[in-house]
């Protein structure tokens, strides 16, 4: 099947097998190896990317489902050579050790902050529940997300990354229409 | 180069590694793509114990994209036997360990066939077309049953499921008295049996390997902790000369001992690439990883602790059964032995005896997992100290204080024969008790008991030590370990003023690039930013013993100091020549040489260039300042600390909530306190996970029923609290940095702290144990049983 999607600001058109997962499309066809695979049951969240501004586990989305969508990966988060505040906060707060979960964790944290610009500790912990880290015990990740929230507020938040809900809904609708 | 005013060591430097990791510019093995690269998929046995009666690969070979299909029979001539480097006794029984099963499978998940295809999807597809029949054999799962008379055998040809029995007896070793006398003469004897459940390391990056046979050398990239050992062992197993093998560990996503292994997958991938003449990549799925990468722990501990009525310890007897699983992997048999010297922990006692029997079962092989032997030992003794305190109606901390080695008694030779160089258990404990609010929590506990509150409060204590910095080579030799425990470092002084530090350690999350840069910066007086740390490639890092056992800093860090001293010794000669003075008249302050008592000086950077161009060197001095060194420690290092946990137990549901967790660790000098804190956080989380969540469970057929991350409960952020961590700093006396290591401390300390808290909450209800993991069901059942167990 032929699909077209914009990934990290660049538009790609490719023929893919219908069974190809979005994460495999990103890694194997586009070389977006910053996004990684940590499990086969969608538990670990390492493959989290943004699909039309919302976090998804890219192992749970078929590439063809992302046809016509805008995808942002960890590789597209920094803008104009400047780290996204969440990336910076992960560095500043030692929120990573081996770094394998980090791309997914950062992408999920950006989405979390879009929904809740000033989460308390428990809200961060709940919001990152679908992303596993084996190194950090999460404490510095929680600290980093709250630190990023402080640095991003007010108004400096992930809006740049976030497509308004209406737009996202509209995109889904149009895709549904195309499929039917 | 300029001298840095503030010492780098001790600073919470942000990590150099982060830049690539937070932007996705990473080099995980699975990211690598080479021209002509083929993909491998493995068929794994669903049976735990069976004879292979038929394998037909005809149909699979015809599948699209398939290049080759091989079975164990096809590899039998080349695959050799996977190495076990730690034959703990002379008469240890070791089964043949083929990378791919040939006639018989001995655990569910063992590889039985491989497909190599042009894409991973095509390889996976073809697996389904392999026709294989098994003849089931009786499954051996329970350790006690496995060593009973007439038991079914995992390996028929060994004639027994007993692998080896290893004994330490303080009376025989001369480090203490006879345990039977100590027990007979004691006023109080407490006997308990604990189970260390089977765990899975569950590093986040699945194992992955890529072998490129093109060119004169065979290059293997692998997500491994041990590139140097892997190179050595791959040569030993396959017969390919070591000089023809290069191993690279690029970015590696966690290990925790789980990647301290020479795996069947690495050998199979290596052999297939060599056979086909094309690069072959294999990356496991998470389900494959959980079933086939080595597991950890899995012991039954029978413990007998003898004491006087006043709490003075007399002796400890430890009788262990340790599950090896179906095969002996790299250090499987030695893991429980690493605990043999730690059950006595920080306490003084007259006599000690340790007897461990290693047992074969039809389960995934066990091997190192964070702490390896020491968490088991610490759990055993710290649980027993609480049980003894209860028996004596004594405060558990008072009992510990009464028996621990005091700070003025170091160096102290323990009843297990080790000499602890330093420690200050009093200071760490006092600090932790104050932060924790021990007395107030005890008061609240009493108050909740008095009003029979549904939520009961428990306080758990763990005053631990561990042996780290593995290890003095002569000790390893005495323990029959096949390798040494030294580490290597090389420093290259580049003519442009930059410095390359080549280390034999192999980081996979520990931040060596940052911490090692700090050490080099201080030693030489060069900027932190100017140091580049090279590691994990046997072609650049030519010697090394890799990273495990909290050894990298204590051993590898010391090698860096020694190499830097050699750079400076050489530089001093060149500087003296440049300044036309005697070598004895040269002073060095970081970054600069000067003539004593004058203002004449020369920057290290200029000396580097002078030595590099070599136009005018003193007689007998070779070009460049590059130097290297190996360090072999004279002793282990002994981090210690006090961990305190307050747990709320809902007596109606059995649910446990960790209310507060305070720890004070003493890991000696902290090179980078930020990294140290991160290691402690992560370590505690893994120890808490053992106490509350994780267990590798097999059903009666030997199938792993916790075979996905939906079933094997690696905790999420929502499952854990924040930990209050701090440090005391009692320098190790056995290395120039005064460091002890921190990789395993949190994991070793936290498990008994949590379980002690749970039991403490329920002791007045007649509970004296809850088996791990302390799930709501187990806790609730223990309450119902009211201590009848």
Automatic annotation (TrEMBL), chain A:
GO molecular function: 2 iron, 2 sulfur cluster binding; metal ion binding; oxidoreductase activity
PROSITE patterns in alphabetical order: 2FE2S_FER_2
Coiled coil: none
Highest taxon above the source species: Bacteria
Alphabetical UniProt keywords: 2Fe-2S, Iron, Iron-sulfur, Metal-binding, Oxidoreductase
Pathway as given in its UniProt record: Alkaloid degradation; nicotine degradation
Region (Disordered): 149-180
Residue ranges occupied by any 2Fe-2S ferredoxin-type domain in the UniProt entry: 1-77
Keyword Iron-sulfur: yes
Protein name: Carbon-monoxide dehydrogenase small subunit
UniProtKB/TrEMBL annotation, chain B:
Cofactor needs: Mo-molybdopterin cytosine dinucleotide
InterPro entries: Ald_Oxase/Xan_DH_a/b, Ald_Oxase/Xan_DH_a/b_sf, Ald_Oxase/xanthine_DH-like, AldOxase/xan_DH_MoCoBD1, AldOxase/xan_DH_MoCoBD2, AldOxase/xan_DH_Mopterin-bd_sf
Keywords, ordered alphabetically: Molybdenum, Oxidoreductase
Domain Aldehyde oxidase/xanthine dehydrogenase a/b hammerhead: 23-138
Domain of life where this protein originates: Bacteria
One Gene Ontology MF term: oxidoreductase activity
A Pfam entry, by short name: MoCoBD_2
Name of the molecule in the record: Carbon-monoxide dehydrogenase large subunit
């Amino acid at each position: 099947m032929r699909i077209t999607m914009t990934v990290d600001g660049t538009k790609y058109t490719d023929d893919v097998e219908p069974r190809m997962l979005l994460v495999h499309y990103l890694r194997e066809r586009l070389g977006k190896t910053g996004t990684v695979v940590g499990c086969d049951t969608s538990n670990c969240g390492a493959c989290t990317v943004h699909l039309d501004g919302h976090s998804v586990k890219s192992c749970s989305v078929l590439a063809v489902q992302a046809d016509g969508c805008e995808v942002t990966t960890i590789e597209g988060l920094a803008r104009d050579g400047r780290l996204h505040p969440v990336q910076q906060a992960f560095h500043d707060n030692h929120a990573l050790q081996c770094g394998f979960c980090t791309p997914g964790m950062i992408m999920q944290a950006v989405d979390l902050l879009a929904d809740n610009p000033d989460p308390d500790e428990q809200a961060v912990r709940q919001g990152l529940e679908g992303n596993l880290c084996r190194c950090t015990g999460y404490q510095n990740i929680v600290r980093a997300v709250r630190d990023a929230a402080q640095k991003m507020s007010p108004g400096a938040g992930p809006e740049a990354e976030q497509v308004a809900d209406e737009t996202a809904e509209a995109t889904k609708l149009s895709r549904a229409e195309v499929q039917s | 180069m300029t001298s840095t005013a503030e010492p780098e060591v001790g600073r919470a430097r942000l990590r150099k590694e982060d830049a690539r990791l937070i932007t996705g510019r990473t080099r995980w093995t699975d990211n690598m793509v080479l021209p002509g690269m083929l993909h491998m998929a493995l068929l794994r046995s669903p049976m735990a114990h069976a004879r292979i009666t038929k394998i037909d690969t005809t149909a699979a070979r015809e599948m699209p994209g398939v290049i080759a299909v091989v079975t164990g029979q096809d590899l039998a001539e080349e695959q050799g036997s996977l190495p076990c480097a730690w034959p703990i006794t002379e008469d240890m029984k070791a089964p043949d360990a083929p990378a791919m099963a040939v006639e018989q499978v001995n655990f569910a998940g063992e590889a039985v066939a491989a497909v190599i295809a042009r894409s991973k999807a095509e390889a996976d597809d073809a697996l389904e077309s392999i026709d294989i029949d098994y003849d089931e054999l009786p499954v051996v799962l329970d350790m006690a049953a496995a060593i009973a008379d007439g038991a079914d055998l995992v390996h028929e040809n060994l004639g027994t499921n007993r692998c080896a029995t290893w004994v330490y007896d303080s009376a025989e070793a001369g480090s203490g008295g006879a345990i039977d006398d100590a027990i007979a003469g004691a006023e109080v004897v407490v006997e308990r049996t604990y189970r260390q459940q089977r765990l899975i390391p569950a590093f986040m990056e699945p194992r992955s390997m890529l072998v490129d046979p093109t060119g004169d050398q065979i290059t293997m990239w692998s997500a491994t902790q041990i590139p140097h050992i892997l190179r050595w062992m791959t040569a030993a197993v396959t017969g390919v000369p070591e000089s023809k093998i290069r191993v690279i560990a690029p970015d590696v996503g966690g290990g925790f001992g789980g990647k301290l292994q020479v795996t069947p997958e690495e050998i199979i991938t290596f052999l297939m690439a060599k056979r086909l003449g094309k690069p072959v990549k294999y990356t496991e799925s998470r389900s494959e990883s959980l079933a086939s990468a080595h597991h950890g722990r899995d012991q039954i501990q029978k413990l007998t602790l003898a004491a006087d009525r006043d709490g003075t310890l007399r002796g400890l007897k430890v009788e262990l059964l340790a599950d090896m699983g179906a095969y002996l992997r790299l250090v499987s048999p030695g893991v429980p032995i690493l605990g043999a010297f730690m059950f006595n922990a920080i306490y003084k006692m007259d006599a000690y005896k340790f007897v461990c029997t290693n047992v074969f079962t039809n389960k995934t092989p066990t091997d190192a997992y964070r702490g390896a032997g020491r968490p088991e030992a610490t759990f055993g003794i710290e649980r027993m100290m609480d049980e003894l305190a209860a028996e004596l109606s004594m405060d558990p901390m008072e009992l510990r204080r009464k028996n621990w080695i005091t700070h003025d008694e170091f160096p102290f030779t323990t009843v297990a024969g080790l000499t602890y160089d330093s420690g200050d258990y009093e200071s760490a404990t006092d600090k932790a008790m104050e932060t924790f609010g021990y007395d107030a929590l005890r008061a609240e506990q009493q108050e909740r008991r008095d009003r029979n509150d549904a939520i009961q409060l428990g306080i758990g204590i763990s005053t631990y030590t561990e042996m780290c910095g593995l290890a003095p080579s002569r000790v390893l030799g005495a323990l029959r370990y096949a390798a040494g425990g030294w580490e290597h470092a090389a420093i290259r002084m580049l003519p442009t003023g930059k410095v390359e530090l080549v280390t034999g350690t192999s980081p996979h999350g520990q931040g060596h690039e940052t911490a090692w840069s700090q050490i080099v910066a201080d030693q030489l007086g060069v900027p932190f930013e100017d140091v580049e740390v090279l590691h994990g490639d046997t072609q650049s890092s030519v010697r090394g013993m890799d990273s495990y056992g909290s050894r990298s800093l204590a051993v590898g860090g010391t090698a860096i100091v020694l190499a830097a001293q050699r750079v400076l010794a050489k530089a001093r000669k060149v500087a003296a020549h440049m300044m036309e003075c005697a070598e004895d008249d040269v002073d060095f302050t970081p970054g600069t040489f000067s003539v004593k008592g004058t203002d004449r000086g020369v920057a290290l950077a200029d000396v580097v260039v002078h030595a590099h161009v070599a136009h005018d060197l003193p007689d007998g001095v070779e070009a460049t300042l590059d130097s290297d060194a190996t360090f072999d420690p004279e002793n282990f290092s002994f981090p210690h600390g006090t961990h305190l946990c307050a747990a709320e137990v809902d007596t109606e549901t059995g649910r446990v909530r960790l209310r507060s967790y305070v720890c004070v660790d003493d890991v000696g000098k902290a090179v980078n306190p930020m990294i140290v804190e991160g290691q402690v956080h992560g370590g505690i989380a893994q120890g808490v996970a053992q106490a509350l969540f994780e267990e590798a469970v097999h059903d009666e057929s030997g199938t792993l029923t916790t075979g996905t991350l939906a079933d094997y409960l690696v905790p999420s952020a929502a499952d854990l609290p924040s930990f209050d961590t701090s440090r005391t700093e009692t320098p190790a006396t056995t290395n120039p940095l005064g460091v002890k290591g921190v990789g395993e401390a949190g994991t070793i300390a936290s498990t008994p702290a949590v379980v002690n808290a749970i039991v403490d909450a329920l002791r007045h209800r007649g509970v004296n144990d809850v088996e791990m993991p302390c799930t709501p069901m187990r806790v609730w059942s223990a309450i119902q049983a009211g201590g009848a167990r």
